[in-house]
Amino acid sequence: GSDAIGVLVMSYGTPESLDQVEAYYTHIRRGKPPTAEQLDDLVRRYEKIVGGFFPLRRNTDRQVEALQATLDREYPDLKFVCYQGLKHAAPFIEDGVRAMAADGITRAVGVVLAPHYSSMSVGGYVKRAQAAAEEVGVAMSFVESYHLHPKLIEALADRVRRALKKFTEVDAEEVKVLFTAHSLPERILQMNDPYPEQLLETSRAVAERTGVTDWQFAWQSAGQTGEKWLGPDVLEELERLHSEEGVDYALVCPIGFVSDHLEVLYDLDIEAQALAGKLGLHLERTEMLNTEPLYMETLADVVRGKVVEAG
Ligand code: FEC
After folding, report:
1. pLDDT band at 2 (very low <50, low <70, confident <90, very high)
2. How many Å is the Cα radius of gyration of the chain?
3. Is position 154 annotated in a ligand binding site?
4. Which residues, at least 6 apart from 46, have a Cβ–Cβ distance to it below 8 Å?
5. What is the mean pLDDT of residues 230-238?
6. Predicted confidence band at 88 (pLDDT cuts at 50, 70, 90)?
7. pLDDT of residue 53
8. CA dihedral 208, 210, 212, 215 (to 10 degrees)
9. b/e map of 134-166 (b: 16 or more CB within 10 Å)?
10. Mutate to test the pocket of ligand 1, among 22, 28, 118, 230 (most ligand atoms within 8 A of CB)
11. Could you tell me which of 18, 253, 26, 281 has the C-alpha nearest to residue 156?
12. Whose CA is nearest to atom 8 of ligand 1?
């Protein structure tokens, strides 16, 4: 065995080329292939955001490299080795766990590149990693959420401050701030899932830190699955705010995501911007964290916390 501590860095995953979109979409749908129409629609959305590469692929690589460098710098007395484990693309979560075992690693920490816990998001990653770890004999513990970490809040607050400066035509107080995250089926509410409350906690903390008082939370990117998803949806909310409350300036801050990818580059930058254009509303978006040092330090800190806890 190795005395190194494995770090399984888990992320959503993305195709690496347009011809992989079908397999990727089928995996998201738990093996059920999409209809031709659904597939066309997704391919079209990807075509609009991929300038020769899939942004999430490159961003995940960079985040994992940056986390490794941060762990090495911050905790030189511990030897961490990072591995990628993706939910819907290779290297899959199970591949990452097996790679650790093949390198002789016997203990590891799992962390997801998403700050908020839901049984349907982070819970799903953890379940798969735990099952794979048991099979190969790696002792794993998991970071479940880090949505109120002071460095995360500071990094988000900094982005809100910078984005508010883009509204040169009005005072910052006249801008409505909308914090957003990926919607989930409404049935998570019956399961007492902490996801909605954690998202509100992050929103509140960032608003307090920036002195923003005119803010609310909205959901985005809901799936088309027939069942009811959490609302209000950000698009409907922008429309309502404009028509009912006369809102002409809005800043979207997607706190549920940490990287530039489809749900941000298409759903917000193309779809929501098109709506804003139609309404005559000035809409801006905060920059994503990507390899932001404060975010990397957040991850390094919570990973090390798990090692200390395990003794
Ligand atoms: O850039 C990219 O290639 C990937 C962007 C991407 C991220 C992401 C994050 C989350 N999702 C979450 C939940 C669901 C549920 C369903 C679902 C479906 C999709 C589809 C695509 C997709 N998601 Fe995703 N998600 C990303 C991409 N997601 C593409 C399929 C087509 C569509 O609906 O647009 C519904 C599954 C079903 O059909 O049963 C549920 C959650 C997150 C945020 C947490 C995380 O990152 O894990 C929650 C990034």
Report:
1. confident
2. 20
3. no
4. 15, 18, 21, 54, 262, 266
5. 98
6. very high
7. 79
8. -80
9. eeeebebbbbbbbbebebbbbbbbbbbeebbee
10. 28
11. 253
12. 12
- pTM for the full model? 0.97
Angle ∠(19,46,119) on CA atoms, nearest 5: 95
Q: What is the pLDDT of residues 18-52, one digit of tens each?
A: 999 999 999 999 999 999 999 999 999 999 998 86
- Backbone torsions φ then ψ of 85, nearest 5 degrees: -145, 110
> Relative to the CA of 184, which ligand 1 atom is closest?
40
CA 219 to CA 53: how far, in whole Å?
27
Question: For all residues of the chain together, what is the average pLDDT?
Answer: 97
Question: Ligand 1 centre from 182 Cα, in Å?
Answer: 8
Query: Which atom of ligand 1 is nearest the CA belonging to 28?
Result: 36
Taking the centre of ligand 1 as the mean of its atom positions, its distance from the CA of residue 169, in whole angstroms, is 36
Q: What percent of the chain has pLDDT over 70?
A: 100
Q: What is the pLDDT of residue 1?
A: 72
The owner of tokens 């690693």 is 105
Cβ neighbours, 10 Å, residue 289: 24
Residues with CB under 6 A from ligand 1: 12, 14, 25, 28-29, 42, 54, 56, 114, 120-121, 182, 184, 223, 225, 256-257, 261-263
Alpha-carbon span 1 to 107, nearest angstrom: 10
On the question of a cis peptide bond just before residue 15, with omega within 30 degrees of 0, the verdict is no
User: Rounded to an integer, what distance in angstroms lies between the CA atom of residue 206 and that of residue 200?
Assistant: 10
Atom of ligand 1 at shortest distance to CA of 15? 3
The residue type at 277:
G
Cβ neighbours of residue 250 closer than 8 Å, sequence gap 6 or more: 175, 176, 177, 178, 238, 241, 276, 281, 282, 283, 284
